[in-house]
């Protein structure tokens, strides 16, 4: 098995990889993945998204490409599904392999692990940046991904949290996971931070506020940004619309631009060091 | 259910399979002899011990959702607290979210540790008639990550079911992680042999959540788990200042109501997105007694009543 592992190239045709992690579910990992991808693409890069949430894949819906077929190359590799005509944003998700959208992937660990291995080795990407969207937790999917990524170019992990303590607890554990598996943490995004009432413009901190920033400070990790709740963003992810294009001047789009600048600045600095 | 070991050869039929030890993939596998002897297909010897322990636990409720962050843990704690308002009933909470245990915080028992006695592990009592067990009580520090693959998580769940000394319980409410994988298969496998057991499905109104929740319903149907009904959480947000309602997670495809209709299930309740609920969960307070007049409190009590009625109908 180890022989096969070393001969299978990991993430072919990928310039660099970002991992989106969170111990907690429902904090907006997939939404952040999509917004980061759209923002990076708007800066002129080719971007791919690999959705390794096998039991709850949501990326195809969020980008409006549900139900597409995945083509296979003559060599037997998968071709990711292109979201745009210019082929600058392509994605792969297990959702494309299911017969119906109600189909459940009821798999125990070993089967999930072999699927993840295949997703990491058998896709022809051709992108500058690949963003990997993960399920919540610190278990099979995460351990397998880390094991397989050792030989790939990985920028590091972006942790997504919401401000309340219930989420911070789980994200703290995810930080421990990153430390133990030796993956660099590029920073923390605090999502769903504050909601401005459309009627009276009063800001409510529905899920508290500042928890993500506090966690970044205490754990010595870069704080990437605080993203407010915007119902127009949930609406866009529901309908598979491009929020960045429709609401380019919104506060949310501005924060994502800042976040991407911070992330890619790290990348270009790193490349300069390497050359 | 798949029983393919971690390090199995390719195309391993699984140790539970009729073909175990006999398939072409088994040739050369060091465990071929054990598999072909039939020993691996014998029932799990711990199953009896689990059944024995659960014989004093009457009604079991699984709180499920394909999606994370929809409020499974909040709903679990609220249902348990609502059921425990009836002082003649004994209620337990079992948290099987191994990688992300939230019950210690939600139930205000963050610093507690589990003690073991001759009778097994003692759960943490957060009230006269309300006990909690979670892997959170077994960790040294709250930063500790449980980096375990499936089999180890399954072992932990089995140990909870076999070794926790609940005493006599009327209701055991089980909080689960998101998904349809190891934890879910294991808990269903163990609880199904000790009925009555039924599931509550938690969702939020938007399609991106419903996508995953439909998969969970498919899962329940495949493993023959009865479903009590659906709870829709975070339905609307009411501005505390001007009382305007906003659907932060818009029900673009009909939300929980449509899901219930499509899947022929009951909608047990629609709960608001209330900052006070998030705050009392963070602080481990009992929202039901802190805010007795809140509409959310009434909704949670109504959900609990429907659960009681469901199980009364079973016996």
Automatic annotation (TrEMBL), chain A:
The keyword Cytoplasm applies. The keyword Amino-acid biosynthesis does not apply. One of its GO terms (cellular component) is axoneme. One of its GO terms (biological process) is iron-sulfur cluster assembly. Gene3D superfamilies: P-loop containing nucleotide triphosphate hydrolases. InterPro entries: Mrp/NBP35_ATP-bd, P-loop_NTPase, YlxH/NBP35. This is Nucleotide-binding protein 2. It comes from Halocaridina rubra (Hawaiian red shrimp).
UniProtKB/TrEMBL annotation, chain B:
Its main location: cytoplasm. PROSITE patterns: MRP (PS01215). [4Fe-4S] cluster 2 binds at residues 239, 242. InterPro entries: Mrp-like_CS, Mrp/NBP35_ATP-bd, NUBP1/Nbp35, P-loop_NTPase, YlxH/NBP35. Binds 4 [4Fe-4S] clusters per heterotetramer. Contains two stable clusters in the N-termini of NUBP1 and two labile, bridging clusters between subunits of the NUBP1-NUBP2 heterotetramer. GO terms for biological process: iron-sulfur cluster assembly. GO terms for molecular function: 4 iron, 4 sulfur cluster binding; ATP binding; ATP-dependent FeS chaperone activity; metal ion binding. Pfam families: ParA. Its cofactor is [4Fe-4S] cluster. ATP binds at residues 66-73. The keyword ATP-binding applies. Residues 1-23 are annotated as: Disordered. One of its GO terms (cellular component) is nucleus. [4Fe-4S] cluster 1 binds at residues 12, 26, 29, 35. The keyword Metal-binding applies. Keywords: 4Fe-4S, ATP-binding, Cytoplasm, Iron, Iron-sulfur, Metal-binding, Nucleotide-binding. It is found in: Cytoplasm; Nucleus. Component of the cytosolic iron-sulfur (Fe/S) protein assembly (CIA) machinery. Required for maturation of extramitochondrial Fe-S proteins. The NUBP1-NUBP2 heterotetramer forms a Fe-S scaffold complex, mediating the de novo assembly of an Fe-S cluster and its transfer to target apoproteins. Implicated in the regulation of centrosome duplication. Negatively regulates cilium formation and structure. Belongs to the Mrp/NBP35 ATP-binding proteins family. NUBP1/NBP35 subfamily. Heterotetramer of 2 NUBP1 and 2 NUBP2 chains. This is Cytosolic Fe-S cluster assembly factor NUBP1 homolog. It comes from Halocaridina rubra. The gene is NUBP1.
